[in-house]
Amino acid sequence: MSLKTSFYCYGHKNVLCKHLTTLEFTTDDFLTLRGDCIIGIRSNMSLFSLPEKMKQFIRNDNTKIIVKMEVDDLVEEVIGYGNSKLELSDTHAMIIRKSSYTCSRTLMIGANKAAIDISREIVQKMKNPDSKMRVTIQVFPADNRRSIHA
Predict the structure, then answer these.
(1) 24-37: per-residue pLDDT in tens?
(2) Strand 64-71 and strand 93-97: pairing?
(3) pLDDT in tens, 114-139
(4) CATH number at residue 75
(5) Number of domains present in the structure of the chain
(6) What are the residues whose beta carbons fall under 8 Å from the beta carbon of 13, sequence distance 6 or more?
């Protein structure tokens, strides 16, 4: 059993994806060069708006989370984990972290990829403001985690 939800975000000329430990989607409609972890802007979903049942599962230390990003024919997946300390309350940022740091903006921790690890083909496409990325979050509750293959 798993829960799944999808949303869309868009490209921007300042997408760099150079951050070593984080990857971010934002509902903001602008991006400065300082936001080197951001891959998409104008997201139509925030952590706050995630389905409540999904939030319950994400707030478990043993829940596995897969974030799938699709732009045209390119696909990238990031795998990480939930945590009981996750607030999932931010209305602007959704951050994937390699570290174990948590705050109101964190979606998952212990991720296998950050912005720097994302395919440069995808990053190049997301530099175009007309590019549209479909992001799917799939949550595997702890009791099913052992049967999921990364």
Answers:
(1) 999 999 999 999 99
(2) unpaired
(3) 999 999 999 999 999 999 999 999 99
(4) 2.60.120.630
(5) 1
(6) 127, 128, 129
